[in-house]
Amino acid sequence: MKIRNFCKVLILLTVFWISAGFAQPSKILIVNSDNSVYRYQTIATEFKKIIQQNAYQVAELNLNSHADAETELKQLIQQENPGLIYTIGTKAYLLARDYTHNRKLLFSAAINWRRLDIAEGTYGVANELASAQEISLLRYFLPSIKTIGLLYSDKFSREYVESIKKDALSVGINVVTKAINEDKEIGDALNGLLPKIELFWIISDPVVLSNKESVKTIFQSAQQQKKPVYAYSDVYIEQGAVLAVSADSDTIGRQSASFVLMMDKDKVSEGTVQSPAGSTITLNKCVLDALRLNFNKDALDSINKVVGCEK
Predict the structure, then answer these.
(1) 272 in helix, strand or coil?
(2) What are the start-end ranges of the H helices in 54-183?
(3) What pTM value is reported for the model?
């Protein structure tokens, strides 16, 4: 998508402009929830490229590599004395936030950051696109869709869902929701929700997506009632989602690095959380054709990846 490419260029230019003339950068500690996860590994790699080009020293802690990650983190902070801690993933953030000791904290890839306890000196790059972006994309790709449904847990996703409703209403789309408290409610919730909607939206809610069986139930129910599924990640394309718009991992890494440079120049306000600057759009043409959906053909040029039927 042209807008996505422009955003990526803008990030690189920002890095160049801000880093010019920067003196004595501090050390950064990267705390990664699990570096065996390709997405997290990619974010860390892109982040380090820019940070090290700007003369920062980097220390790393991969939580999956340590039986007692908490003790290891405390020791590493004491030994390295980083000026900033950068966390990748929710697990890393939840552990590191209690040991910042007045240091700046930057997070990325934390699912539904609005539910996190954000303390002073904390900044972030969101894992999800802004709800307005997602609604605009849905309207662009599937212009005939007027009613969208989603399941969510009030504890984790209430703020995000309210934002979705507001942004959807502004463009004439009605959002029908059902709150659940535990995954065993999903089946009955779907039976009541799916007949009322034209498309089901999977958001990154930890209760709705608590296990593989929950995901399986969602797609089986949607398929039985011939309702398309839109998802926040392309991992759901092979499950049967017709369209997925996910935050681009490479861009999140570079965006986080440029964020650090801006923070050190006092160019951003404390508590700022940015939406991802880039996205990857995947279309499941096999499902699209099977459901005979009215898809905007002019939007095909904006698709990054088209998946067909397996032969």
Answers:
(1) coil
(2) 69-80, 90-96, 131-141, 154-169
(3) 0.77
Distance of CA 49 to the CA centre of its chain: 21
CA 117/CA 60 separation, integer angstroms: 23
Q: What is residue 12's predicted lDDT score, i.e. its pLDDT? A: 52
Q: Indicate the residue type of 182.
A: E
- Which domains are seen in the chain, by residue range? 2-128+248-278 (3.40.50.2300), 131-246+280-307 (3.40.50.2300)
- In angstroms, the CA 268 to CA 261 distance is 10
Of 30, 70, 69, 78, nearest to 50 by C-alpha is 30
DSSP 281-295: EEEEHHHHHHHT---
CB 74 within 8 A of CB 42: no
So what's the pLDDT on residue 130?
Answer: 87
Q: Is 51 helix (H, G, I), strand (E, B) or coil?
A: helix
